[in-house]
């Protein structure tokens, strides 16, 4: 089901891009006001603005619905993943308690002989 919604979503996105590119801009109406062949159009003398706007709005509404469906599927998948490699709070707290019980490492003092350490010192 999720795959089907994803495929429909991608196709709707491509359809919206195509519909927006097919629509005429605001400056294209200037030629129609001087009688530039408006009677020979398929959608009548008003042009295709009404039809294309309605189809674009419909496709946008369905794209919006598929976006919500994909978000729902992602939420359900995220809530079903209990063990994603992240330890629970109890494991973290018990590890911190065990770390407090471990003896601390003794750090050798730097006042010892220079030959006891492999790290050169500047004197």
UniProtKB/TrEMBL annotation:
<feature type="transmembrane region" description="Helical">
    <location>
        <begin position="51"/>
        <end position="73"/>
    </location>
</feature>
<dbReference type="InterPro" id="IPR004692">
    <property type="entry name" value="SecG"/>
</dbReference>
<dbReference type="GO" id="GO:0065002">
    <property type="term" value="P:intracellular protein transmembrane transport"/>
</dbReference>
<keyword id="KW-0812">Transmembrane</keyword>
<keyword id="KW-1003">Cell membrane</keyword>
<keyword id="KW-0653">Protein transport</keyword>
<keyword id="KW-0811">Translocation</keyword>
<dbReference type="GO" id="GO:0015450">
    <property type="term" value="F:protein-transporting ATPase activity"/>
</dbReference>
<keyword id="KW-0472">Membrane</keyword>
<feature type="compositionally biased region" description="Low complexity">
    <location>
        <begin position="102"/>
        <end position="117"/>
    </location>
</feature>
<dbReference type="Pfam" id="PF03840">
    <property type="entry name" value="SecG"/>
</dbReference>
<feature type="region of interest" description="Disordered">
    <location>
        <begin position="102"/>
        <end position="123"/>
    </location>
</feature>
<dbReference type="GO" id="GO:0043952">
    <property type="term" value="P:protein transport by the Sec complex"/>
</dbReference>
<protein>
    <recommendedName>
        <fullName>Protein-export membrane protein SecG</fullName>
    </recommendedName>
</protein>
<keyword id="KW-0813">Transport</keyword>
<dbReference type="GO" id="GO:0009306">
    <property type="term" value="P:protein secretion"/>
</dbReference>
<comment type="function">
    <text>Involved in protein export. Participates in an early event of protein translocation.</text>
</comment>
<comment type="similarity">
    <text>Belongs to the SecG family.</text>
</comment>
<keyword id="KW-1133">Transmembrane helix</keyword>
<dbReference type="GO" id="GO:0005886">
    <property type="term" value="C:plasma membrane"/>
</dbReference>
């Amino acid at each position: 089901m999720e795959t089907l919604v994803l495929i429909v979503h991608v196709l709707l996105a491509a359809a919206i891009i195509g519909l927006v590119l097919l629509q005429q801009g605001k400056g294209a109406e200037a030629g129609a006001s001087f009688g530039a062949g408006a009677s020979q159009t398929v959608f009548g003398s008003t042009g295709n603005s009404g039809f294309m706007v309605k189809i674009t709005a419909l496709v946008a509404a369905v794209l919006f619905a598929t976006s919500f469906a994909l978000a729902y599927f992602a939420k359900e998948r995220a809530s079903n993943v209990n063990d994603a490699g992240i330890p629970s709070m109890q494991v973290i707290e018990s590890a911190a308690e065990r770390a407090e019980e471990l003896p601390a490492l003794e750090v050798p003092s730097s006042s010892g002989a220079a030959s006891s350490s492999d790290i050169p010192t500047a004197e």
